[in-house]
Design a protein that fits this description.
transmembrane helix; Cell_Proc_Reg/RNA_Proc; SMAD_FHA_dom_sf; Tumour Suppressor Smad4; alpha+beta; 6-stranded antiparallel β-sheet; 11 strands; transmembrane; 1 helix; 5-stranded mixed β-sheet; membrane
Length: about 180
Amino acid sequence: MNEHSEGRGEGRDRNGPQGTMLFQRGELPEAPPEPAGTEVEESDLPVLVGVAEPFKQQRLLMRPGRHSLGRQSDNDIVLQEPSVSSQHAWVINEDGECRVMNLLSTNGTWVNGERVHEATLREGDRVRFGGAEFVFHHRDHAGAGLPLAGRRPRWRVWLAGGAAVLVLAVLVRIGLEVLA
C-alpha cells in the first residue's frame, strides 16, 4: 500500500486541487474564547485597513479567534466584491499573531504579491483577497480617524453624545428661567 492509498493516515497526500493544502476539522486551530470580564481595547487589536475602493480606509479588527471572510452573508467578515469567493479565507488571531488561510478561493489569497495557502502576517504586509486589498497592522494605531466596518466611527458617537448633552443643558436652563 503506498502513502496515498492509506486514506486518512499520517502519510496521506495533503495537496488538493490547484495545490491547495487540505485539512481535517480536528487539525484546524480553535482559539479559546476571551475570559468573561476581559475587555480588549480596539487600539490593541490587529487590524486590516483597506487600501483600494470599495474598501478604502475600512478597518477590519481581528479579535481573538478564527474569522471567516468572503462574499457570502454568513461569513464573519463580508466583502461584497465580485472577485472575492463566497467562502474565501480565514483570518486567525492567536495571542495577537495573525495568519491568513486560503479556502479554495477562485482568485486566491495574496500576501505582498505572492499567492499563499497560509501565511503569518507581519506589520505592513499587503493582503489581497481576490481584488480586495488591505494592509495589516499589529495594532490599530490610527483607528480613531478611520471607519470601522459594520460600526459607526467613534467621532460620530462622541459628536452625537456631545450634542445631546448640549441640548439637555439648554432645556434645563430655559426651564430654570421659566420657573424664576
